[in-house]
Design a protein that fits this description.
Distance between the termini of chain A: 66 Å
Number of strands of chain A: 0
Order of helices and strands of chain A: HHHHHHHHH
CATH architecture of chain A: Orthogonal Bundle
CATH topology of chain A: Tetracycline Repressor, domain 2
Largest interface: A-B, 62 and 62 residues
Structural class of chain A: mainly alpha
Number of domains of chain A: 1
Oligomer: homodimer
Mean pLDDT of chain A: 91
Helix content of chain A: over 70%
CATH class of chain A: Mainly Alpha
Strand content of chain A: under 5%
Largest sheet of chain A: none
DNA sequence: GTATAATTTAAACGATCGTTTTAACCATTT
DNA sequence: AAATGGTTAAAACGATCGTTTAAATTATAC
């Protein structure tokens, strides 16, 4: 009767349901039903519903932020070697690309990216602080890189523009399956690479504009 | 014992609590406590919790969308008279400015703007469809205006860029009181006019860029 | 094989929830 | 004043919830 992957199944089910419905509208009974485990297993393995959410968040967030940092550091090193400033587009790409790749077809992380998008939006919610605590040091690094890349733009402008970028990015993290009414001639299904490029064009242009 | 403004008090309390905590994490008992009315009054006046949310959404949304449309129509008329294309910045301003003015000091609509930001993010939530149903026709108008304003940019790009803008805007609607860690020298308190201008600079630059 | 630890399980607990019920109270109409 | 309609109120309902409990089962160590 012992199942070697009980914890993983709970985590997978929780990730999916928290992403789809949010923390408060997902019950442990829904999770354990989907995972085909017993209700008390959640408390045994994770302690509480909140701790389960924390485990769900942390399981992928570390690797995602590592990828982002790698991309950033790669550009910073390159810029140093070539004795130039880091390029804004490469900086923004390091933030955007690994994130949106999480929603690529074949990715196992589609639910996770939705969940992250939700957590960013739910400013008073249970997972928000956990998530932000992980995000903030990384965003500071991006901010510093942008200040270096764009000395002609006031640093406080760059702070707010990074905020706007996070808003656009989180919106794209959530909205992969609901498009509302689409104008004639527009295909709501789009390749991830194309979406990434469009978002980069948009945000980099916004970053670089001198008022 | 009869109170002439029971409905308004319920609506005000609901607006505040739904905005702060979201629909699912707000109970009717919290709302009626804050409003100092009896629990059954909600069902008597509004029918159900969901219908209360709908009433909360609709009470301000009509006027907000009217303002947005007015701003847009004004620019379209002006452009027609002057025999020129509409200006992208004026179009975006019509979308952004009335929205963010809702969070200006002295505004009674701070909770509402937060609630709208939440609803946009909660793609499976109760209020989302109600809200989107009101938004979509208006966004189509903005989209058409942008297509007219920027003939050198592919219309499908403009569709996605409008999406990105909605993402940034809704992020700013939610995040008025939580800034996370702020870099040294940056003041997280900012005047609404300044914020509006910054967001416009950012989004208009992103709209206009030709790939 | 026995003892110990880990895991699973069903039932129960106490709490909270949205909704309903019904009587009392208040306001308006005749 | 009585009849009618509108509103408030407390209690109750049935449901759901996260958490706990204690026994049974399985896994591991000796």
């Amino acid at each position: 009767m012992s199942q070697p992957d009980t914890k993983q199944r709970i985590l997978d089910a929780a990730e999916e349901l928290f992403a789809r419905n949010g923390f408060y509208a997902t019950s442990l009974r829904q999770i354990t039903q989907l995972a085909e485990v017993n209700l008390a297993a959640v408390n045994y393995h994770f302690g509480s519903k909140e701790e389960l959410l924390e485990a769900v968040i942390l399981r992928h967030l570390g690797p995602l932020n590592d990828k982002r940092r790698q991309g950033l550091e790669h550009e910073l090193q390159l810029a140093q070697q070539e004795e130039r400033r880091p390029r804004p587009r490469q900086i923004m790409n390091a933030l955007v690309e690994p994130t949106l790749q999480l929603r690529a077809p074949g990715s196992d992380h589609l639910a996770f990216v939705t969940l992250v998008g939700r957590l960013l939006a739910d400013t008073q919610g249970v997972g928000h602080e956990i998530f932000v605590r992980q995000m903030v040091p990384m965003l500071m690094q991006f901010y510093q890189a942008l200040v270096e890349a764009l000395p002609e733009v006031d640093p406080s402008l760059l702070y707010w523009r990074l905020h706007f970028t996070v808003g656009s990015l989180s919106h794209m993290m959530r909205c992969h399956d609901r498009h509302g009414v689409v104008p004639p001639g527009i295909d709501p299904e789009i390749e991830i690479e194309a979406l990434i490029n469009m978002l980069l064009d948009f945000t980099v242009a916004g970053m670089e504009v001198v008022p």
